[in-house]
Amino acid sequence: MFRGYGPAALESLVFPKKALMKANRMFQICTVSLVLAGLPALTNASPFPGQAQTCTPPDNSGHNKHHAKTADNQTNAKDDRLTTQKVRRAVVADKGLSTYAHNVKIITENGTVTLKGPVKSDDEKQKVAADAASVVSQDKVVDQLTVKQ
After folding, report:
1. Pure H helices in 44-121
2. What is the tens place of the pLDDT at every residue in 30-89?
């Protein structure tokens, strides 16, 4: 194609050195800008001066660390899974309950239903226990719900 020109000469015609240096510099600037723009999110600092940003853990995370019985280690028995499903449906169907109550932990082991987590009031605590008792008998419901202060 180009007689007498080697690969280096051809490269300099296609990509002039100044253009490559300029593109490299722009890439470096863009990379540094993106890193600096994301720095407040990584350091938990507020992007707005004078405003502190705090991260708060979910309401009951600290309490769950020490519980031996959790939904993660619930048995995989078909009857227990079906019972948990029925209790969850009964609780969620009760539209008078708060989001806290709709999200309580329901753990079924050998037919015994354990309810854990925060609710907004004593009345709500009783309603969730009653919803569970509508699926299994009252003596098979273990109420470990706490009232959120």
Report:
1. 61-64, 78-93, 99-102
2. 777 777 776 555 555 555 555 555 555 555 556 555 556 676 777 788 999 999 999 999
CATH 3.30.70 residue window(s) in the chain: 61-147
Task: Report CA-CA distances (Å) from 41 to 12, 47, 52.
Answer: 42, 8, 12
Helix (H) or strand (E) holding 33: helix 17-43
Other CB atoms within 10 Å distance of the CB of residue 71: 14
Q: For residue 84, give the amino acid letter.
A: T
- Distance of alpha carbon 55 from alpha carbon 44, whole angstroms: 8
Environment class of residue 91 by beta-carbon count within 10 Å: exposed (0-12), middle (13-18) or buried (19+)?
buried
- Per CATH, domain 61-147 is 1.10.10: no
Instruction: List CB contacts of 136: < 8 A, sequence separation 6 or more.
Output: 83, 87, 111, 112, 113
Show the tokens assigned to 84.
């948990």
Say whether pTM exceeds 0.85: no
Running DSSP on this structure, what letter comes out for residue 93? H
